[in-house]
Amino acid sequence: MDLLDEPVPGVGTYEDFNTIDWVREKSKDRDRHREIATKSKESTLALMKSISDAFSGWLLMLLVGLMAGALAGGIDISARWMTDLKEGVCLNGLWFNHEHCCWNSNKTTFQERDKCPNWKSWAELIVGTNDGPFAYIMNYLMYVCWALLFSFLAVSLVRAFAPYACGSGIPEIKTILSGFIIRGYLGKWTLMIKTITLVLAVSSGLSLGKEGPLVHVACCCGNILCHLFTKYRRNEAKRRETLWRSFFAALVAAFTLRSINPFGNSRLVLFYVEFHSPWHLLELIPFILLGIFGGIWGAFFIRANIAWCRRRKTTRLGHYPVLEVLVVTAVTALLAFPNSYTRMSTSELISELFNDCGLLDSSQLCNYANVSVTKISSDALPDRPAGPDVYTAMWQLSLALVFKMLITVVTFGMKVPSGLFIPSMAVGAIAGRLLGVGMEQLAYYHHDWVIFRGWCSPGADCITPGLYAMVGAAACLGGVTRMTVSLVVIMFELTGGLEYIVPLMAATMTSKWVADALGREGIYEAHIRLNGYPFLESKEEFSHKTLAMDVMRPRRSDPPLSVITQDGMSVEEVESLIAETSYSGFPVVVSHESQRLVGFVQRRDLVISIENARKRQEGVVSASRIFFTEYTPPQPPNSPPPLKLRGIMDLSPFTVTDHTAMDIVVDIFRKLGLRQCLVTHNGRLLGIITKKDILKHMAQMANRDPDSILFN
């Protein structure tokens, strides 16, 4: 009896913390597709099933887009409401945030549009006034208390229900997409808890963003919805490909988000810029300076954050995640409240820094001295001398810059959902606005200098400080993540500023070059290495002249390679081999003497098949022989029935010779997504190379601890 004439539940699946076999999964999908195509010619029902199978990918993307867009909109609206809750409440309805509360008020002036009788601060509700030191202390106290409550709820929910919901999620998502299995990381509980705690963490005022965790949330949506469709549920590789269809999913998500309108401005972008002033070629110098700053800041942040996270892992600090979150939240809230630029949400801060000052702006940053203007352009005001409030704002922004740079180092990586896009952009936007205002004042008072002569005449709008903030934000984000083309596209999406492609590209490339000169890894790659995930970085070069025989196992001092013969082993012998080893699979050879390779069998498939045979096939005992051959030879009389397991064996495992250069082997693993590769010499099996063997060898060649390459 061949047990694999019909599928055995569990065969072809993978255990937790294992790498998938991309080649096998692709082959399974091709066989499935070929079978469907053949049957579709036999009947109308089969043809309808074939059409349904082809359409299921697009339906899945539609559902993912709807779900991800709806969750993103809900998270945005909830986070804005809870952030404002730290400062007061709306008497018209508790569910209104500050801005929405004042929209319907007839007593709101444009200059003081944030002040309306419907919105009451906590001091007004508790002590009856918003003026005086006691009212200030009351507002301060309530701000800190709400921040501590939100962060406590966030870290407690993560610890109790979904430990995988903490952090950004992007390092793990990159590892999962490369073929690694982390059960539960994209599950229902993780999605639910991450969605709730992301709102709480952002609302607490911690120096973190929601963009990275939203990637994790969207991936959870995709993984959960994949289980509704057979071809994705049963194929790990199929579940990880969706590049072209992801464009359609993004389109649906954007439409859903536009329908929800979470930003209240009928636009899809988070920081829409309304200035379109041209920039001059000489301004590339300060833009490149911002790129240098972004690269230095990025390299500093990665080193400092990784050092802090390593300390968290190796000392008692990691044993008290709740206490750590509460202490960081308390320090953040206590230092943030006195400064209006750190008290406001980081998204609101970036939006204000990107803004170009108009006649009706009441921000401190727009408090310029009044000068007589003969002609006002509809697009921009001429450069003007800074007023006292602008200088006050510069000091406050300088303090905010130092505060954000330091507090983000200890915040990213705590046991709450935490993104890095918004904090990194905030650091760059502050630095850019400071430089932009400095350049603006320099151009106003010294327009006859050589660098301004010819393009910056008196009364002209020469410098746009908001543009400098935008370029600085891109530079710092690029320095931390090492993104280039995708980062420029992201900045377009966030701001809508298409005409500033050259300044953004100049700053982004400069920041990457500077950061790469100081350290090769981006923040997500550094966290992948810190956690020991088996991820082969495509950009990491392998320049060492080693051969496959130098990396393969077994080594010269090791016991011989554990193998299974194609027709000579009993069930008891195979079960003993499985019990005595922890390998994920075994090569199948003709005999121990010849070591001629026949195929490769996965440990999990072998265990499940033997257990299934004991239950379903009568007479199978420990003495039964296991055959991986195409035909079973005649058995002696009275012998127990044999087991035919050829169906679970990979008949074409990938092999290399012992003299293959390791740089070629590394390329093969990267491009084919291999799980393991067998090493032969003149057709005889010598050893095996796994993905972890390659990562350990690369770590050893880079003078790092090779034992750090394991899932931690």
Automatic annotation (TrEMBL):
Tell me which Gene3D superfamilies the record gives.
3.10.580.20, 3.90.1280.20, Clc chloride channel (1.10.3080.10)
Coarsely, its chief localization is: membrane
State if Ribosomal protein is listed as a keyword.
no
Question: Which keywords does this Swiss-Prot/TrEMBL entry list?
Answer: Antiport, ATP-binding, CBS domain, Chloride, Endosome, Ion transport, Membrane, Nucleotide-binding, Repeat, Transmembrane, Transmembrane helix, Transport
Q: Where are the transmembrane segments?
A: 55-75, 140-165, 242-264, 284-306, 318-337, 393-413, 420-439, 467-492
Q: Does the keyword Protein transport apply?
A: no
What CDD domains does the entry give? CBS_pair_voltage-gated_CLC_euk_bac (cd04591), ClC_3_like (cd03684)
Which is an annotated GO molecular function term of this record?
antiporter activity
Q: Where does it live in the cell?
A: Endosome membrane; Membrane
Q: Which GO terms describe its cellular component?
A: early endosome; endosome membrane; Golgi apparatus; plasma membrane; synaptic vesicle
Q: Where is the CBS domain?
A: 552-616, 649-706
SMART domains found in the cross-reference section: CBS (SM00116)
Membrane topology designation = Multi-pass membrane protein
Entries under InterPro entries matching the protein = CBS_dom (IPR000644), CBS_dom_sf (IPR046342), Cl-channel_core (IPR014743), ClC (IPR001807)
Q: Could you say which protein family the record assigns here?
A: Belongs to the chloride channel (TC 2.A.49) family.
Annotated protein name in UniProt: Chloride channel protein
Q: Which organism is it from?
A: Cyprinus carpio
